[in-house]
Structures are given as C-alpha cells and as structure tokens.
Amino acid sequence: MIRWLWRGVAAVALVCVAIAVGLGVHASWSVSGWTILAACALGAAAAFVNSARRRRSLQALAAAALLVLLIVRLAAARGPHVTMPTLPGGTSSRWLGRLVDEQDVSLLGARALIRRWPVTHDERERLPQEMRAAYGEMRAAVGTFPSPVLNTLVRRQAPSGFDALVFEPRGGPSGAAVVFLHGFGGSFALECGLVAEAAQAIGAFTVCPATGIGGHWAGGDGERIVRATLDYVHARGIHRIYLAGLSNGAAGASALAPRFASSLAGLVLISGAPASGTDASLPTLVVHGEHDRVASASAARAFATRNHARYAGFDGGHFVLLMRREETRAAIADWLTRREAAVPRPAP
To answer: What pLDDT is recorded for position 78?
Structure first.
C-alpha cells in the first residue's frame, strides 16, 4: 500500500516536471532550473524501478545533482559588480539570497501574472520571452548576482534587517546614486539592474532595498527601510541621490518625497505616478506605458502636468520598463545626464 502511494506521488511529480519542461521550451529556465527539474525527474522515476539497487542509484544521483547545484549556487552568486549587503549595518548577504536563480522564480511569476492581471496583448504574448532575454543580457553585463526573492517570500525583510542590492558603476563612482523602490511582488534583481543600467550614464551606483511583497513604502517599515538606505548611501560619501520607484514603489517614492526632499536630487517614477501625488518640488521624470491597464497613464500624465515633471510615454503596458527596456533606459539615462549637467561645479 505504501509503495503504491509513493508511486502515485511520484506520478504527480513527473506530470509537474513534464509541464515545467513544456513551459521551458518557449522561455527557457536557467541552468539551475533545468538541473532541479532533471533531479526531480530522476527521484520520481526511481519509484517505478523494481530493482532496489537501481532505485537507490537513481535517488543518489538526484541527491548528488541537487547538492552540487547548491554548492555552486552558494559559491557563485558573488559577482564583482553586484552585491547584496544586509542593511542596516552592511553585513554580507544572507545565504538564502544565493540559493536559487532568480530567473526561474520570475518566469514562474510572469506566467501566472499574464493569466490574472489586466495586461496588454503584447505582454500576454511575449512577457516570459522578454524576461528570459533580459536576464541573459544582465548576466552578460554583470555576471552572477544574488537575489532577495526568497528572503522576501519568507518575510525576512524588515527595518532591523533587509536585503539591499547594490549595482556598482563600471569605471568608478561619480558622486551620485540612485535608490530604487520595487513594486508589488517584492524586490527583483532584474528590475534593479534595468534601472542601474540607466544610472551607468552618470556613473551612479544603484541601491535597491527590499520590503514586503506588497511594496508598501509610504509609512511604517517601508519608510524606515528607505531612511536606512539613505544613511547607507550617505555613509559612502554620496549626497546627490535620485529616488526612483516602480509601480507601488513609484507611489511610495512620491509619498516619501516631501519627507526626504532635503536628501534628494530628483525623482524617477515608473508605471505608477499617482494623480494626487507630489514631487515635493524636486526635478522629476515620469516613465509610463500609454496602454497600462494596472496603473493609469492619464493619472501619470496629470501628475506630470500638475508638478511640471517631464513625462516620457511609451507604446506599452505596465511592464514597459522590461518590454521597452532599451527605450526606457535611454529616457532615464538622458534625464539623469541632463540633471547632472545642471549641477553647479566648483570653480577650478
């Protein structure tokens, strides 16, 4: 009876693996993801082998593959351009941040989102493929990188200890920094990296703190996390800081702007500028998809008009930062470059 029950569980596992393999054909999982699927398939297949010796061999092979993957992942996610200190305090990144490849979690989430969220037709058709391509571009640019995803899922992001992705500028810092606030779903290295690529235009380093899955920044824990992040940037000798946010993070950045205005050089609001929000008289760029069905483009335009902000609209939906990444990166980079050019320089 127990053996038949075990075979039933194994059969379900094999079906799940087959579905995952089918999904991976159109937007491929990472090497880590494929290794996990192969190990799961071997472990489940062992239940249908009558020979005890062969069964143990398959189980040992599956376990060995997972163990090697774990060792490689824990050792590899320490690229020179991307770190993930635990703030406040700046201690080294927590091991859970190096356990999985973020690409696999993101692709799984993207496939669920396009079935549940009011996304555009283009996003529904191409979001997983574009996400897979963007991760490839990011690896080519910065190598391996940690991720705050698992720590967020197990509720380990709090003012007393939170992950902060730090993308260092290539060629050395310029004296400016971008602090990027994530949206609903938690902090992802991919979104942080897309903004960091734009920040490269002015030699700024980018810091992306993590709060809970909801991406609530306007008060309580969110505000304290932003304050601790600004303290971290100041401790590095940087006092020209641009606060950026995506979706809920954009709404949070607008809400926090009046409280931190004296520490900020400007705002960048992406896919979430609230119609009634304020830029606290800071120079502001609003980036938005004109067909966004999650955050209103008309509200974003109203925000920009009322606050005399620069508005950059694109043919896209809520995921315009990813789907139109070259165009949005260019718009953010151009705005940052213009802002830096306007900064008074000391006389020689």
So the answer is: 59
Residue 97 has pLDDT above 90, yes or no: no
Could you please report the per-residue DSSP string of 334-347?
A: HHHHHHHHTS----
**Each residue's pLDDT tens digit, 296-313:** 999 999 999 999 999 999
Q: Whose structure tokens read 């596992």? A: 13
Tell me if 163 is assigned to some domain: yes
Please, are residues 92 and 86 in contact by the beta-carbon 8 Å criterion? yes
Instruction: Determine, yes or no, domain membership for 256.
Output: yes
In the chain, how many domains are there? 2
CA gap 156, 150 in Å, rounded: 9
Is pLDDT larger for residue 10 or for residue 49?
Answer: 49
Both 58 and 104 in one domain: the answer is: no
Query: What's the pLDDT score for residue 35?
Result: 83
User: Is residue 194 predicted with pLDDT exceeding 70?
Assistant: yes
Q: Which residue has the higher pLDDT, 11 or 286?
A: 286
Pairing outcome for strands 205-209 and 240-246:
unpaired
Task: For residues 290 and 176, state if they share a domain.
Answer: yes
Buried b (16+ CB within 10 A) or exposed e, 311-324: bbbbebbbbbbbbb
Distance separating alpha carbons of residues 104 and 30, to the nearest angstrom: 6
Cα 65 to Cα 58: distance, rounded to the nearest angstrom: 11
Whole-prediction pTM: 0.90
Pick from 45, 76, 107: which residue ends a domain?
76
Among residues 48, 76, 104, the one where a domain terminates is: 76
Distance CA 245, CA 253 (A): 6
